[in-house]
Write a structure and sequence with these properties.
Length: 172
């Protein structure tokens, strides 16, 4: 009876942990996270995101990119699913949302809504095109995204492994 009670208790604790992990990462879908490259197999990299690990398929990394074990890496959460052993967090560095989140992270005007990224189109490893417009007539959206002597866009280009980024004005 005691061992049955212990099994029931540990089962409920595991279920509660699993549910809390799913709740924690459910709202992170479409967000950019920083993780540690923990493991690698033939098809995937496993990224440590704190309490759990995400799966970064090798086909979802930027072409020509070298990922080093133990290094920190920025990843975009594409999907959070409920798997048999807990949440399955699918990650990507190829998704257009990754570029969008990089712009929000590096450029304060994009983060606060003064500059709007209307559309992001991407051919990973080669080129991205970002259509921007400003809600404030006094702010040049392209100049604000590039920054003084390219200082703001430099961080984005470094993270994208030298991929070309074209910033074009959006006419609405």
């Amino acid at each position: 009876a005691a061992s049955t009670a212990k099994q029931v208790l540990t089962q409920r604790i595991r279920e509660a942990e699993k549910n809390s992990l799913i709740e924690e990462f459910q709202d992170k879908e479409g967000e950019m996270l920083l993780g540690l490259v923990a493991m690698e197999d033939s098809r995937n990299y496993f990224i440590d995101l704190g309490r759990t690990r995400g799966i970064l398929p090798k086909k979802e990394i930027i072409p020509g990119e070298k990922i080093v074990m133990g290094s920190n890496i920025k990843v975009y959460v594409t999907k959070v699913e409920n798997g048999p052993k807990g949440p399955v967090i699918k990650l990507s560095r190829k998704n257009y949302g990754f570029v969008k989140r990089l712009f929000e992270h590096e450029i304060p005007e994009v983060a606060n809504g003064t500059i709007v990224l209307q559309m992001v189109v991407r051919e990973p490893g080669i080129r991205s095109k970002v259509a921007v417009y400003s809600t404030n007539d006094k702010i040049d959206p392209i100049g604000a995204c590039i920054g003084e002597r390219g200082s703001r866009i430099a961080g984005i280009l470094k993270e994208l492994n030298g991929e070309r980024v074209d910033i074009i004005p959006y006419k609405y």
